[in-house]
Write a structure and sequence with these properties.
single chain, 742 residues, alpha/beta, Rossmann fold, Dimethylsulfoxide Reductase, domain 2, seven-stranded mixed beta sheet, six-stranded mixed beta barrel, 30 helices, 29 strands, 33% helix, 16% strand
Length: 742
């Protein structure tokens, strides 16, 4: 007798493409994940899903014996690796009681939390903490997509979204990592190039996208702002800007033109290592092949000069008139008829006096409550809603929070909840993070696996995966398009595992802590019914193939600003930012040399002569995930650092040797791979490495000290970006030498 086969739609959360896929289930067991043939954008997503190694390993991941299945409570000293299994009721009761005691003693601000890369339901996390009264939600916001969203709100009144269309004649990819970071955009870009579109890539390394480029601008790490200003100089001085759009819709062009005079291509060439003629060629190509789109492939956000570089990069599409036109950078606006994540967060419930306590907000103001309060009224005037979410766009400052945990200054932080993140691997300055997590009165981790961070927890809770929960996706509230799915698999199977969705964690803790009136929906499905109600659907009805099929794609309109103006104080694109000016920052972009570079610190460079960059994406891993999945690990068993063969020869390092990479903060080892597509003065180190196969107890912590790039990185607030607090991941000085065996 043949078994029952079922196919359910799911939204894959293993990268930021959020492909909707089909989960094939036989007799209640997940067999495989395959492409969603009903996807309306199948020409973009189907090839991605078919070739995705992570998607192919879905069943292996889902049924892996090391996946957490039940709540655990620490049974020994922190980090000793001793645990006892407990019920969910006991875990939630005890955690809630501990939180209540800490709040009563130190205030709600003494309770913080860490998130990952926005692939869970952070809107409900934010809802819980706003109702609790704590402003100290931290994560990767300052170095992930948060700066892009906030910069978009600041300069345009919405986040420009790259949409590569048949009309697109030029693509500027700033940070060439789009094949790894946004595969559908890379697929669309490849199609555009075959049609004849020009392709410009800015990246220190000749990775896949750079190999396909008409022009590859191989800049010195950390000099992106200078390069963008050099291109602006050329476009303005040669009269290549869109005079009509600039005159009518740009604020501060004259002041920008004056600032741009400081960045002649010859001067910029000295700063960036990019020849002046190449800077001119790229500027002309971008400005004269309209419509042009611009894609950000990560990297800019990891610089000490990050917000200034983003400001300059966003000026390029503005002065060339490539904003909100077909084939250019689109201002989509929010999903009008769906209740967005931002609306769910209840930011208004966090009292003003508590907002002021957000750690780091008094110093790094744009991506914090001071910035939010300036941006919100102007954005809402045009769009009716804010995009993004607090966790990504307006977090507390993580390096400042970790220091407060250790020092108790300016006030104590005594409890942290980590949800689907791994700060011991993903947060800069691992030694400081370790000291902070060890010193907490209460540390709770909810995750899929026992990570190095979880090994330091008091409670470890098993998280449901994207296959076990429904989802509504609208690009963090920045896109009018909404896609959805129901849960493909149950999160609990009697006698096998009992996992919960993060929604359940926040709701059940919230009810225990007096928030019951704000959690009327017993399940995430009911919460999604509420969010879809203005559209006229329940989640189940929205998924009906005869109705919406899980998609709402309103028609695209262009040049919407002609009716509404831009969502900024001047109602124009703010080349000269009145928001930055009001917050006390330079209203125009200006390049500043990284604090740790051969130019700014030649004495240090004598001991550490190479420039270190980290964070480049690589298949089949994603951040610190998937190291325990055998089929994926076989394809990439070891952490890899890249070194130019000429430099390797000088250092007597052979291809394949294990080498030490050392900065003033520590050293790690990775396996060397020769790479000619990089300047000999630059070293690239893979991020996200730990070793699940190694022991979990201290001092091992699954090998977190061995090859973890964040042992090398700096998070000193003095060295963070002064506007948004982002920490530098791509400009450190290092030295490299062979691991000697005797």
């Amino acid at each position: 007798m043949s078994g029952k086969t079922d196919t359910k739609k799911a939204i894959c959360m293993w990268c930021h493409s959020h492909c909707r896929v089909s989960a094939v289930i036989e007799n209640g067991r997940l067999v495989r994940v395959e492409e969603d043939k009903d996807h309306p954008w199948g020409s973009l997503f189907t090839p991605i899903t078919k070739g995705c190694l992570r998607a192919r390993a879905a069943a292996e991941w889902f049924y892996h014996p090391d996946r957490l299945g039940y709540p655990l409570k620490r049974a020994g000293e922190k980090g000793e690796g001793k645990w006892q299994r407990i019920s969910w009721e006991q875990a939630l009761d005890e955690i809630a009681e501990n939180l209540r005691q800490i709040k009563d003693k130190h205030g709600a601000e003494a309770i913080g939390n860490t998130s990952g890369t926005g692939r869970t339901h952070d809107e409900y996390r934010d809802r819980f903490f706003h109702l609790l009264g704590s402003p100290n939600s931290i994560g990767q916001g300052e170095i992930c997509w948060g700066p892009h969203i906030t910069a978009g709100h600041t300069f345009f009144g919405w986040t420009p979204f790259p949409v590569v269309r048949p009309e697109t004649n030029c693509i500027l990819a700033w940070g060439g990592g789009i094949p790894m970071y946004l595969p559908p955009l890379w697929h669309a870009s490849r199609k555009a190039m075959r049609r004849g579109a020009k392709f410009i890539v800015v990246d220190p390394r000749r990775i896949e996208s750079a190999e396909k480029a008409d022009i590859w601008l191989q800049l010195r790490p950390g000099t992106d702002c200078a390069l963008a200003m050099g291109m602006i100089n050329v476009i303005i001085s040669e009269g290549l800007y869109d005079k009509e759009f600039v005159d009518k819709w740009c604020h501060g062009f004259d002041k920008l033109a004056e600032r741009a005079q400081e960045y002649a291509p010859e001067k910029v060439a000295d700063i960036t290592w990019v020849p002046a003629e190449k800077i001119k060629e790229a500027a002309r190509m971008y400005a004269t092949n309209k419509p042009a789109g611009s894609i950000q492939g990560m990297g800019v956000e990891h610089l000490p000069n990050s917000m200034e570089a983003l400001h300059a990069r966003f000026i390029l599409p503005a002065i060339t008139g490539n904003i909100d036109i077909k084939g250019g950078d689109l201002l989509e606006g929010p999903p009008v008829k769906v209740i967005t994540a931002k609306e769910i967060e209840l930011a208004e419930k966090l009292p003003p006096e508590q907002r002021k306590k957000a750690l780091g907000a008094d110093r790094f103001k744009l991506m914090a409550w001071p910035g939010y309060e300036l941006l919100e009224p102007n954005v809402k005037r045009v769009w009716g809603k804010m995009g993004g979410d607090v966790a990504i766009e307006f977090p507390a400052h993580a390096p400042t929070v970790y220091r407060a945990i250790i020092t108790g200054k300016p006030y104590p932080v005594r409890a942290m909840i980590t949800l689907s993140s791994n700060p011991m691997v993903t947060q800069a300055n691992t030694k400081l993070v370790f000291k902070a997590l060890k010193s907490l009165d209460l540390y709770v981790v909810m995750d899929f696996w026992m990570t190095p961070s979880a090994e330091l927890a008091d409670y470890v809770l098993p998280a449901a995966s994207w296959l076990e929960r429904p989802h509504i996706h609208d690009m963090f509230g920045t896109s009018k398009t909404v896609l959805a799915c129901e849960a493909a698999m149950p999160s609990s199977v009697e006698g096998q595992y009992h996992r919960k969705r993060d929604y359940d964690l926040w709701r059940e803790l919230g009810i225990r802590l007096g928030q019951e009136e704000y959690w009327p929906w017993k399940t995430l499905e009911e919460a999604y019914d509420y969010r879809l109600a203005p559209l006229g659907y329940t989640l189940k009805g929205f998924m009906d193939k005869k109705e919406k099929g899980g998609f709402d794609i309103p028609p695209t309109l262009y040049k919407k600003y002609e009716k509404t103006g831009f969502g900024t104080p001047t109602r124009k694109v703010e080349l000269y930012s009145t928001v930055l000016e009001e917050l006390g920052y330079d209203p125009l972009p200006r390049y500043e040399e990284p604090h740790e570079s051969p130019v700014s610190n030649p004495e240090l460079a004598r001991e550490y002569p190479l420039i270190l960059i980290t964070g480049g994406r690589f298949n089949p891993m994603y951040h610190s995930e998937h190291r325990q999945i055998e089929s994926l690990r076989k394809r990439h068993p070891d952490p890899i650092m890249q070194l130019h063969p000429k430099k390797a020869e000088e250092l007597d390092i052979k291809d394949g040797d294990w080498v030490w990479i050392e900065t003033p903060r520590g050293r790690i080892r990775q396996r060397c791979r020769y790479f000619e597509g990089m300047d000999p003065r630059v070293v690239h180190v893979q991020h996200g490495w730990w070793f699940p196969e190694l022991p979990g107890e201290e001092p091992w912590l699954h090998g977190v000290w061995m090859s973890n790039a964040n042992v090398l990185t700096d998070d000193d607030p003095e060295h963070c970006n002064k506007i948004n607090g982002g920490w530098p991941l791509r400009t450190a000085l290092c030295k490299v030498y062979k691991v000697r065996t005797y």
